[in-house]
Amino acid sequence: MKDNKALIKKSTSNELSNAKRQSKQIIELTDKILDNRTQRELTTHKSNNQLVASYDWLRKKFSGLTDILTNRTQQEMIIPKKNNQLMISDECLQEIWDWADEFELTEEELPRNKEDLLALTELDINRWYSNRKKITYLPNAIGNLTNLTKIYVYANQLTELPSSIGNLINLKDLWASYNKFTELPHSIGNLTNLAYLQVTNNQIIELPNSIGNLKNLNLLRVHSNQLSELPKTMQNLKNLRELNVNSNQLRRLPDWIGSLTNLTKLFVGYNQFSELPTSVSNLTNLTELYIYGMQRKELPDWIKNLTNLTQLDVGDNQLRELPNWIGNLTNLVDLDVGDNQLRELPNSITQLIKLEWINIDGNPNLILSAEIKEFIRTIKHKIGFKDK
């Protein structure tokens, strides 16, 4: 029996080595074909038959790699299963338990017996407002806990997520804010059941293109990072309800943002752009829009079409006046126009009879008419209002 196992292990290892080698050849060839100079040379010096032959060779290589990986998957399928969980090696289990002991995880946080560990659905090891030992890494073996649906690891000192996290195909919630990530693994795109992804207050420079595979994502919070652009693949996130990209280094908000028509909450303040694409006007399901800290001197007219808005924050800009159409947003409950350069408010603001909260603070030259003063007195919560 041992000899058979050793033979299978050796065979599998050889197949994977061949797969890796062929993968490398494919990548090298793809880079060569996509190189602009090489493309020009192919067009100028090679016949169409030669070009077709190159792609034909590439296709065959991919086909060979697919066959190998299929065989590998078939071998894995014959491993005994229990409770829909692959039986993992004792070495993997021990790696997880050693990690748990290193960071003093409790039995409640991470069970120390095999059955309970493999059945674990929620890993909550956040250190928010805690003096407990901060976690600096997640073990690669965590990718074997495929019953996990929720992971909470915020307020630690993680510098990365292991690529094996892409194996957690049942994961729905991933909360990893207040760590030290500079990137997310490409494998995160495998988490197609993910509904909530929050990785705020890290040092993330870019998001992987694979994030566009998260078709079931409802909430994406990546604010307070170092993002300079958003990958175009994000336009595939048609089920997204909330997008928060506040406090990054974004140079612009892409036009495709208007294709995310199920968005109800959009936060884009404190970035490196002041203009908003008109495509945002397509987001008629928006109930909350936050465009503060953009150094704008006036509001774009298309906001008047977003009549489902209940919260509008345009604070910390350079607004000198509010347009009369502000009164058309009759569903507004919260309105923040603080820290601008407003001199007066339009009378149409009195049409916002659902207002429960308003901030007009930080407008030193603001003069209110008697009618508007009377209206603001009826608002439950008000900031910056001096009733004289």
Concise overview:
The protein has 6 helices and 14 strands. By secondary structure, the protein is α/β, with parallel strands linked by helices. Strand 1 (81-82) and strand 2 form a beta hairpin.
Write the layout of secondary structure elements.
Elements: H1 2-34, H2 36-45, H3 48-77, E1 81-82, E2 85-86, H4 90-102, H5 114-118, E3 122-124, E4 150-152, E5 173-175, E6 196-198, E7 219-221, E8 242-244, E9 265-267, E10 288-290, E11 311-313, E12 334-336, E13 357-359, H6 370-377, E14 381-383
Parallel strand pairs: 3-4, 4-5, 5-6, 6-7, 7-8, 8-9, 9-10, 10-11, 11-12, 12-13, 13-14
Antiparallel strand pairs: 1-2
Helix pairs in contact: 1-3
Tell me what you see in this structure.
This protein is 26% helix and 10% strand. The protein has three domains: 2-78; 81-252, Leucine-rich repeat, LRR (right-handed beta-alpha superhelix) (Alpha-Beta Horseshoe), CATH 3.80.10; 287-388, Ribonuclease Inhibitor (Leucine-rich repeat, LRR (right-handed beta-alpha superhelix)). Strands 3-4-5-6-7-8-9-10-11-12-13-14 form a twelve-stranded parallel β-sheet, with no helix packed on it. Strands 1-2 form a two-stranded antiparallel sheet. By secondary structure, it is an alpha/beta fold. The protein has helices spanning 2-34, 36-45, 48-77, 90-102, 114-118, 370-377; strands at 81-82, 85-86, 122-124, 150-152, 173-175, 196-198, 219-221, 242-244, 265-267, 288-290, 311-313, 334-336, 357-359, 381-383.
